Known about the structure:
single chain, mainly alpha, 59% helix
Amino acid sequence: MDEKLDMSRQCVLVAQKTNRILGCFKSSMASRSGEVILPLCSALVRPHLESCVQHRKDTELLEQAQRRATKMIQGLEHLSYDERLRELGLFSLEKRRLQGDFIEAFQYLKAAYRKEEKNLFSKACCDRTRSNGFKLKEGRFKLDIRQKYFTIRVVKHWNRLPREVVDAPSLETFKARLDGALSNWSS
């Protein structure tokens, strides 16, 4: 973190570290198959990429490392990045962050609305629920500072989820349905 509390330097260092790891893979791996590269990237590269606090410009820097990793897999080099992700059953870093946010929100909402205590989220009360039946109320703020807060970030996207996803009876069902919804999701 620098004197302006900017964490972009952290993202640059993470991107450099992941690129060094990928360079080691490339120079030392005899096999470039997905069965070899994908588990290594999941264990050694993705945790670094996901640990970094991301702003829009930093996300692109980190996404380049994931692009490079997916391009290393033999047979997928000619495909576009989105096609490679789809072929491998992966999401972009932005979608993975959103997926994690949704899972946290689902767990919180299921527990909080059973207890009916003070909540982080408030349910929108309206009859017009064309998509999901569990819409959350969006807060309105004059300053941009709160736009990155978890509660604000999630609400905007939560309300776009299909009804069958938010009405899931369990976390496992929610995750499975969420993966299906996110694979068809346009950012």
